Amino acid sequence: MTQEDPVKFVAPEVERWVYPAETKENLDWAELTTIDISTFDQPGGKEKLAQELASAIQHDGFWAVVGHGIPKTEVERQFALGKAFFGKQTLEQKATRTVKFEDGDYFGYKPRHVKKMFGTEVRENAELINIPKFTESGHFEDIHKELPFVQYFRDEIEPFSKKTYEVARKLFVLFALILELPENYFADKHKYDDYSDDHLRYMQYEPRSAEDDAKVENNWARAHTDFGSLTLLFSQVVAGLQIKTGDGENSQWKYVKPVDDGIVCNIGDGLSFWSNSFFRSTIHRVVRPPEDQVTAPRLGLFYFVRPGDGAQIEVAPSPLLKRLGLYKELKPITGTLYVRSRVKNYHDSTSYDKRAGEKFRVGDFEIADGFE
Ligand SMILES: O=C(O)CCC(=O)C(=O)O
Ligand SMILES: [Fe+2]
Asked: Which residue ranges does the record assign to the Fe2OG dioxygenase domain (predicted)?
């Protein structure tokens, strides 16, 4: 696209979002802990919530949050914006700023079908837009300017991004309490106004034929752990997300259930490193939805918290970890370096492969990155 020939942005009409119907199929659902964080600011509230979360964070690495205070109408409006973005903008209008996987830069638009899967001719089927934070010092203004849809709806997207981060901030306090650290230990390393690759994401999977799906073992997103510190997934009605529960031979894939007005959260690599694997960065994947849900696109709304420039990843000097014999001194690595290296390693190729048995490592920090 040349200077003389800019893509013309046309504001789409945004229709009210209606959630798809829940599946009638009897799926093997994961039993996830739900915490109601409306009590967070009450006396003793966060300590009690930390207790409620402690087991889930070690074993499943996934849990649900309700009572988060973000009005349902605002969540639905974000789904509506996502639907309008994918459905009503042309490819050119969507692709004014695309991800740069070669630099580990995951901001902007990623079209679908750019990569093959599992050594077949079948292409992956998700498109997404990752919207950087709106920081006080304007770290990402240049990127926002390249995304006219985001500029146009900024009055709604910016406050939503900040409110979602605020839920994450409360969870960071709970993580610190669980590890008996000063309560802002993790929150201070993940400030909204600091430089980091955090993003609000709209993501839409386009259904594939059953025949193509079968060639890739019904995988819509290959098994992975999340690269950042914490992921927030606004309740997804279309089944397909599965988490690997249990260990070794006893492990099983279980489906994540929709949680009315809830946010499903999971630990990413960063918090697994800070806790020397005490917090579990759980392996998950997305598979072809059940037949009563597979006809429509599957739209998701997320906030990914990533450790940034100011976050040194190391094992946290936690009294609990010390008592458990899990504390050790490792050479710290910078959050942004880890995240960008991981994005590049994972995405910068022409196909998504299983990589069974592979590990990804930066400095002293290593995580499994290949699964059968
Ligand atoms: O689409 C989903 O439900 C999950 C996607 C996911 O795991 C990811 O993008 O990291
Ligand atoms: Fe994920």
From this structure: 196-307
CA of residue 286 to ligand 1 center, whole Å: 7
Cα 198–chain centre separation: 9
Q: Write out the CATH class of domain 70-368.
A: mainly beta
Residue boundaries of the structural domains of the chain = 70-368
**Both tokens assigned to 202:** 């709209």
Model confidence over 286-303: pLDDT tens digits? 999 999 999 999 999 999
Retrieve residue 159's tokens.
């406050």
pTM: 0.97
What's the 303 CA to ligand 2 centre distance in angstroms?
11
Helix, strand counts (H, E) of the chain: 10, 18
Q: Which of 99, 110, 236, 241 to mutate to test the pocket of ligand 1 (most atoms within 8 A of CB)?
A: 241
Tell me which of 349 and 186 has the higher pLDDT: 186
Q: Print burial letters for 46-84: b (CB count within 10 Å at least 16), e (below 16).
A: beebbebbbebbeebbbbbbeebebeeeebbbbbbbbbb
The 3-state DSSP class for residue 264 equals strand
Residue nearest to atom 8 of ligand 1 (CA): 226
Q: State how far the Cα of 104 lies from the Cα of 288, in Å rounded to an integer.
A: 28
Nearest ligand 1 atom to the CA of 241 is: 3
* Structure confidence at residue 372 as a pLDDT band (50, 70, 90): confident
Interface pTM (ipTM) of the complex?
A: 0.97
